[in-house]
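Design job #97: recover the sequence.
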């Protein structure tokens, strides 16, 4: 049994206790002190004082902040009794006294004031600290108050992570294949540096929740047999300004000592949100500082000397600050997606190892009934089935337990994302293929990696995954037009094939419109409006998106012109998308039917399809916005 270290040496604690008691005593004292001074003098209400003044009874008064003392005349008009009253804030008082012939003077604050002040200012914080320390001494151990800047990274050293290997992760074969290389780097860094190869510093794991990003990171550490530091992005930005950045510094310091090792940052988006969208009044200072510190640390060490590989996970890669993706930082991105049928079966096998299965269980059938489940959902499913088996008094988990569990889990998930009907699936398939085909021929659109109609979440029914080929800060007008057309590709495909549109394209349209608006009002890409910056939104200054710089107000005519230009741009993208899809109608059908059958198209198969996309006949492109520049094809 390990000896538990006393959180604080007993002596220190004794001293702390004494300090605490003394401070409490002083506080109590300070509460009673002020009221003790004027006890001997008879007190009268303020109204009485005023009456006396008005009746010319008061001879003289000394006006203090907390008290007025005044001497009244006796019957002979000689100086008599002294009274005290508590003043009400009253600017007319000097006038009143003056008018009624009272001799008066202001009294400086009483002598003991400094003492009371001191007590008032110092004691509460001291007590706070004392109580805090007391708390920590009880529960928190040495961690906490004084080690606030210390990173809270949980460190799993070899022994623990060695248990987790790539065998524990299934259904994400491509991600595993990419990470094998990282394992090699960690195992034998020398082999690579000798050749002058640059070892990657950062790898970003991108994918929806519960797909095993954390598990993969642990598996990399386990395979390589190196320590694993894990912290969540949200833990960095918890409390006070400056804490996050010192945590980052500290984390890297610890890690460098243990090199080679892995740092895993979950929820990278919590710190890595694009800085340009930060608050206007520096409301996100803390996060920004933390992010800057992270960037500094990643730039700071020489990868050929210190093998620290930073793995990070996010399910919102689009919101990340581009600075994070620059070479030498998270320049590798690994997609960790929801598993397909085979993947789901493999994951079920892994999690079923821990439970006793009845003869009749067919995990393949279970996998077939659970499209859209992520690894975590499947793990949950197996557990649910085991619980049901226990409730039903089965000696092993049967297929019927699984069936019931599937229904339960789906019911739970359906609250979040509803299942698609067959007709909806068709529409979604054509919609997604529409994006992909248009994207394949338009300039400046990112390379399409994957099309999927495996449902995920409420917002996107299916999706087309585009990874940026390179980090881009500047895009030219042609590329932006290409993006607009690609965004409209989904809706255009629906129009072309089904003759009507659905609500599914709402988000695409919003993005396309926003982009077009930016082109016109911020990038000066409209011939009509010229290279001026307009902002007609007059957004409030505290909006979350931080587009706070209120620029010049826009006249009605200008607003109309902007509208026309924006509409022209979007409409033009729409026409381009339609033209491309018309020219490739047969291909659209083929790919969409394949997608319906397989749920996912990616890799080589996708590439083959996309290579077959023909650029449209240019004459088919009708330019809608009359004032827009012609698009050279
Ligand atoms: N591909 C997988 N293979 C096997 N088990 C998996 C897989 N994906 C998820 N799991 C199970 O689900 C659990 C949770 O997954 P994990 O925390 O790694 O997901 P995540 O992608 O990091 O999720 P989040 O984005 O919510 O942090 C794992 O501990 C594991 O039991
Ligand atoms: Zn779409």
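Job complete. Output follows.
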């Amino acid at each position: 049994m390990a000896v538990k270290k006393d959180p604080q040496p007993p002596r220190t604690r004794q001293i702390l206790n004494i300090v605490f008691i003394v401070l409490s005593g002083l506080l109590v004292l300070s509460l009673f002190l002020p009221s003790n001074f004027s006890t001997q003098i008879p007190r009268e209400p303020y109204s009485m004082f005023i009456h006396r003044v008005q009746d010319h009874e008061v001879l003289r008064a000394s006006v203090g902040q907390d008290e007025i003392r005044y001497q009244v005349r006796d019957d002979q008009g000689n100086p008599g009794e002294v009274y005290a009253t508590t003043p009400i804030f009253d600017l007319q008082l000097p006038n009143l006294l003056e008018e009624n012939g009272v001799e008066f003077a202001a009294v400086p604050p009483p002598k003991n004031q400094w003492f009371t002040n001191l007590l008032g200012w110092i004691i509460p914080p001291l007590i706070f600290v004392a109580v805090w320390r007391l708390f920590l001494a009880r529960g928190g151990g040495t961690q906490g108050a004084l080690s606030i800047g210390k990173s809270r990274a949980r460190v799993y050293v070899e022994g623990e992570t060695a248990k987790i290997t790539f065998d524990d992760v299934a259904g994400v074969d491509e991600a595993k294949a990419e990470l094998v290389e990282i394992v090699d780097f960690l195992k034998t860094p020398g082999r690579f540096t000798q050749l002058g190869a640059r070892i990657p510093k950062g790898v970003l794991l991108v994918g929806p929740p519960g797909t095993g990003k954390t598990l993969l990171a642990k598996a990399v550490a386990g395979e390589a047999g190196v320590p694993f530091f894990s912290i969540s992005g949200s833990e960095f930005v918890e409390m006070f300004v400056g804490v996050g950045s010192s945590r980052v510094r500290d984390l890297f310091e610890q890690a460098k000592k243990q090199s080679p090792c892995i740092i895993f940052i979950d929820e990278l988006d919590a710190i890595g949100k694009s800085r340009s969208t930060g608050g206007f009044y520096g409301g996100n200072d803390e996060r920004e500082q933390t992010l800057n510190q992270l960037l500094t640390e990643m730039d700071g060490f020489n990868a050929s000397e210190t093998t620290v590989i930073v793995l990070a996970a996010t399910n919102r890669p689009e919101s990340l600050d581009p600075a994070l993706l620059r070479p030498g930082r998270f320049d590798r991105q690994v997609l960790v997606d929801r598993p397909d049928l085979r993947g789901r079966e493999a994951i079920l096998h892994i999690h079923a190892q821990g439970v006793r299965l009845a003869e009749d269980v067919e995990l393949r059938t279970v996998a077939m009934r659970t499209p859209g489940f992520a690894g975590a959902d499947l793990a949950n499913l197996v557990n649910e089935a085991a619980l049901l088996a226990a409730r039903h008094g089965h000696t092993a988990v049967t297929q019927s337990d699984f069936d019931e569990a599937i229904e339960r889990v789906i019911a739970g998930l359906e609250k979040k994302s509803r299942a698609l009907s067959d007709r909806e699936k068709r529409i979604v398939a054509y919609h997604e293929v529409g994006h992909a085909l248009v994207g394949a021929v338009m300039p400046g659109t990112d390379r399409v990696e994957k099309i999927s109609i495996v449902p995920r979440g409420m917002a996107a029914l299916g999706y087309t995954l585009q990874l940026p080929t390179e980090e881009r800060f500047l895009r030219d007008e042609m590329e932006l037009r290409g993006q607009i057309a690609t965004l409209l590709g989904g809706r255009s495909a629906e129009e072309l094939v089904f003759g009507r549109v659905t609500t599914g394209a709402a988000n695409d349209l919003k993005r396309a419109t926003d982009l077009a608006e930016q082109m016109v009002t911020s990038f000066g890409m409209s011939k009509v409006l010229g290279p001026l910056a307009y902002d007609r939104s007059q957004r409030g200054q505290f909006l979350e998106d931080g587009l706070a710089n209120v620029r010049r107000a826009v006249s009605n005519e200008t607003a109309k012109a902007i509208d026309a230009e924006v509409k022209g741009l979007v409409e033009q993208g729409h026409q381009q998308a339609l033209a491309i899809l018309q020219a490739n109608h047969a291909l659209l059908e083929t790919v969409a039917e394949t997608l319906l059958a397989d749920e996912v198209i990616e890799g080589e198969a996708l590439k083959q399809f996309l290579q077959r996309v023909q650029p449209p006949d240019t004459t088919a492109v009708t330019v809608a916005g009359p004032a827009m520049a012609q698009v050279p094809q």
